[in-house]
Write a structure and sequence with these properties.
The complex is a heterodimer. Chain A is an alpha/beta fold. Helices cover 37% and strands 23% of the residues of chain A. Chain A is elongated, with a radius of gyration of 22 Å. Chain B has two domains: 4-34 and 162-285, Rossmann fold; 62-123, Alpha-Beta Plaits (2-Layer Sandwich). Classes of the chains: A alpha/beta, B alpha/beta.
Chain lengths: 294, 291
């Protein structure tokens, strides 16, 4: 079971084309399980259009404190011990500020604090037509612990891969470099970074590559919308060489991609012969040979 | 519009939050308003790329972390049993701390029966202050690479609020706790979206986050290229006002890719931002402030 390889698609900056690329690669790779780890704003299911939800699992998030006014003696200890200023002068807990540390709960002399978990999201294992198993999740709006839900998605995905005898897991990651991203990339074999040739693109690219290297994960680069600014493409290729990244290729700006998005279709199905689709097939071929060496 | 917090969120990444926020800040500052720009996307802060502030202060952001006196420790396990974040593990002759899991709540310090734990600090990133074009006060937080605790750094950025200013707050993408922390004290939230099924899907989640917090919401549509009927239907049904529309335009993309403030190099879009400012004023009228 250790022969399962995991590839994660990340970007640092949002909106560079992670999901479009993952969606396209999903229809090219055989024998794989696909995971959407962007649990805040999952989109891949809109392209893959799962046939059937095989399993729905509830995700319980962290605990939150609530003060029972009937038992509260207004002694003020909770306000004193709370590092997050989450308790008001009239002893009401602000659930936005509450981190769920339990300090007020454990230290309240009147035992007036309730401290319980609540439903924070769902994780779905699905079947798709032609794309194999697909796992994604929905964090309830505004909830915490997205990193933990990502871990749940990844566990379910591994279980599915073992069950179905798949040797590849393809993960669509969240934007950023924080908690859910760390949870998405740790233990993977390759991070495919999708960037765009803009100053924000290169700024965020450097931070996500640093993150991958911090966790000793090999990184590969795809430059999307590559013809917007050739100067940055050059700079990115140079950066790639300096940092020893694998250069997977570039996808030119293609209006068909926007059209495909509007219909929530993978670009390879929508316009199989457009320049972007051809570029993605080349990237896929390179990925295949890299996979053999991983 | 003084002393107001205007937050920019989106759900989906890359819809143009920073572009809209930066240009509104520019427009307001150009119109003689006192503007503070706070970049709360601490994982990937980008506002400085366009506003190019001259930074004059860099402060490390720290989070409390326990320091365990192994001599006093009896390895009773109380600290690790109480820690909600699994940041402490008690072994027979040692207590291990996983600093990146620690939320700095200080419960272990208070719960230890031997008083063997004291409060230390660790760096999670830094805050930079500077001044940008037309006197815009600029602040951003930059999270250390490998550090998962974005929340406390966002709080740190928000401690820098300047009174009497219009505060433009750029939120991170997504719909979970960092976004909630960022928009929690906003007087109005501008949702920047794009007219695609993905943009709309994520917009709906972001709107419900802001609605749960009771915020007035306006929607800015970026990269509009003909009407996207499902978006129009959703906005109408939920009574959400469209407060700005920017067209899909290669020139805008090109200027963005050069790191330009749009209004500086493509001033023809000034009408859109004037309209945005007026519409935000209307949104605020529903709460506490007026122009």
């Amino acid at each position: 079971m250790t022969h399962i390889k995991e590839i994660v698609v990340v970007s640092g900056k949002g909106g560079t084309g992670k999901t479009s690329l993952t969606g396209a690669l999903s229809s090219l790779f055989r024998d794989k399980v696909i995971a959407d780890c962007d649990v805040d704003a999952a989109n891949l299911h809109m392209i893959l259009q799962p046939e059937e939800v095989l399993q729905t699992k509830e995700f319980t998030g962290g605990k939150k404190a609530r003060i029972d006014p009937d038992r509260c003696t207004k002694c003020g200890i909770c306000r004193e011990v709370c590092h997050y200023d989450a308790i008001s002068e009239d002893f009401v807990v602000d659930t936005v500020s509450c981190e769920g540390c339990g300090a007020c709960y454990f230290l309240c002399p009147a035992k007036a604090v309730n401290f319980s978990t609540r439903l924070a999201g769902y994780c779905y294992v699905c079947s798709t037509s032609g794309n194999g198993r697909f796992v994604f999740a929905e964090l309830l709006p505004g909830e915490e612990n997205s990193g933990k839900l990502v871990a749940m998605v990844r566990n379910e995905t591994r279980t599915e891969a073992e069950k179905t005898g798949s040797n590849l897991i393809l993960i669509d990651g969240p934007p950023g470099i924080g908690c859910p991203v760390i949870s998405s990339i740790t233990g993977t074999h390759l991070a495919v970074v999708v960037t765009e040739p803009t100053p924000t693109g290169i700024h965020d690219l450097k931070r996500i590559v640093e993150l991958a290297h911090h966790f000793q994960i090999k990184a590969a680069l795809v430059i999307n919308k590559s013809d917007i600014n050739p100067q940055y493409v050059q700079e990115m290729k140079q950066y790639c060489e300096e940092k020893g990244l694998i250069y997977l290729g570039e996808i030119p700006y293609e209006t068909q991609i926007t059209e495909a998005q509007k219909e929530a279709k993978a670009i390879l199905d929508f316009a199989p012969e457009c320049v972007a689709s051809r570029a993605i097939r080349e990237i896929y071929t390179k990925l295949q040979s890299i996979l053999e060496e991983l | 519009m003084r002393d107001t917090n205007i937050a920019f969120a989106s759900g989906k990444g890359g819809t143009g939050k920073t572009t809209v926020a930066v240009n509104l800040a520019y427009f307001l500052a150009y119109s003689q308003q006192q503007v503070q720009y706070l970049d709360c996307d601490v994982e990937e802060p980008n506002g400085h790329i366009f506003l190019k502030p001259e930074m004059d202060l860099k402060t490390p952001a720290k989070l409390m972390v326990p320091v365990i006196d192994q001599k006093k420790c009896t390895f009773c396990g109380e600290c690790s049993a109480h820690c909600q974040f699994n940041a402490l593990v008690t072994l027979p002759k040692n207590v291990l701390l996983f600093p990146e899991l620690c939320h700095g709540c200080g419960l272990c310090v208070r719960i230890c029966p031997e008083n063997a734990i004291t409060e230390g600090e660790r760096e999670i990133g830094y805050i930079e202050n500077g001044r940008a074009i037309h006197g815009i006060e600029f602040i951003h937080g930059v999270l250390n690479v490998g550090e998962p605790m974005a929340g406390p750094l966002i709080q740190e950025v928000k401690r820098q609020y300047k009174k009497q200013y219009v505060r433009i707050i750029d939120a991170p993408p997504g719909t979970s706790c960092p976004v909630v922390k960022t928009i929690a004290d906003a007087d109005a939230v501008v949702m920047v979206t794009e007219p695609t099924p993905f943009g709309l899907h994520d917009l709906k989640i972001a709107v419900s986050v802001a609605k749960n917090l009771g915020k007035p919401i306006g929607v800015a549509i970026n990269r509009q290229n003909g009407e996207f009927p499902p978006l129009v239907t959703y906005l109408l049904k939920n009574n959400l006002p469209v407060i700005m529309v920017l067209p899909e335009n290669r020139e805008i993309a090109r200027h963005y890719s050069m790191g330009n403030i749009l209004l500086q190099t493509l001033p023809i879009y000034i009408d859109q931002f004037m309209e945005l400012a007026v519409n935000i004023g209307r949104l605020l009228g529903k709460t506490k402030c007026r122009w």
